[in-house]
Amino acid sequence: MKHSIFAALAVLTIFFGSCAGTKNTSDNKSTDLNELTGNKWQLIELNGKTIEGKLNNKMPYLEFLADESRYVATGGCNTMNGTYNFTGKNNISFKSGISTMMACDDMETDRLLAQVFVKSNNFTLIDGELSLNHGKTALAKFKKVDAENNLTGTWELDYIANASIPFNELYPNKKPFISFESGSKKVSGNGGCNNFNTTMDVQGKNIKFGPIASTRMACPGEGEPLFFQSLEKVNVQSVNDNSLTLIVGDIAIMRFQKKEAQKK
Question: Which bin fits 139, alpha (ψ -120 to 50), beta or left (φ > 0)?
Fold first, then answer.
């Protein structure tokens, strides 16, 4: 009987000790981690070599998805992903997942970036520049993407969630679009019938639109009301090349394609 009591106490001691250890790991999260997971990061250096602009017409980037502890990245060709884990102050580990299998002119950057996720064991974050390191050796460097500048331009809707009829029937005459002005909080566009104006507040990947003011033409169908109602709910934005996705929580409810600027 006495041995059973001691055994039970030993199990409880191990259990609570394990819980305490887990709590300490989570307590290591800091404002640096909030910045890390709250922004998109453009690759600017790989193994000491400068990476400028786009590769294969695609910006090489890294993005952390905080809610899922997953990362998404590309070296300019294929999209790779997996999971990440913060194991202590500025310590990080990655576990690679699946990758797309496209063929591109430049495949080397993809290959080298994939190796970074295998070798990295810590990171540094200074003045908007992120470095993934092995020990004291910098393997890859990234700069924080300015979310507002990334949004600048005009985007045309090509998908919206919760519609009861096909997209082409929802907007038979004109697709809704949204325009962001460079260096401004002002937003304008068209809901498929009426022109509208609003404002936005962007903090990294988070976005919030203000009250929508629109013209008041009578418009048939449910397309425009659905567009405005969806826009008011959005709280996350994601730009990948020429595609803009607006998200509620972790559910993509609107997708836009960037329109080329009209030549004057």
Answer: alpha
Is the CB of residue 109 less than 8 Å from the CB of residue 77?
yes
Phi, psi of 12 (to 5 degrees): -65, -40
Separation of CA 20 from chain center? 32
- Owning domain of residue 164: 147-258
Instruction: List own/partner pairs for 27-32 with CB under 8 A and 24 or more apart.
Output: 28/86, 28/88, 28/89, 29/86, 30/89, 32/90, 32/125
Distance CA 132, CA 162 (A): 40
How far does Cα 244 stand from its chain's mean position?
Answer: 11
Mean pLDDT within 238-249: 89
Give pLDDT tens digits for 194-220. Answer: 999 999 999 888 899 999 999 999 999
Is residue 9 in some structural domain?
A: no
Residue 189 near residue 181, CB atoms below 8 Å: no
Residue 7 within a domain: no
C-alpha span between 237 and 180 (Å, rounded)? 13
Calculated CA dihedral for residues 63, 66, 68, 69, nearest 10 degrees: 80
Cα separations in angstroms, 65 against 20, 33, 56, 138, 223: 26, 12, 24, 23, 31
Examine the domain organization and report whether 124 and 51 are in the same domain: yes
Q: Is residue 64 part of a domain?
A: yes
Whole-angstrom distance, CA of residue 78 vs CA of residue 27: 35
The domain total for the chain is 2
Q: Please write the tens of the pLDDT for every residue from 10-38.
A: 333 333 333 333 333 344 455 677 888 87
| Helix (DSSP H) and strand (DSSP E) numbers for the chain | 6, 18
Q: Tell me, what amino acid is at 215?
A: T
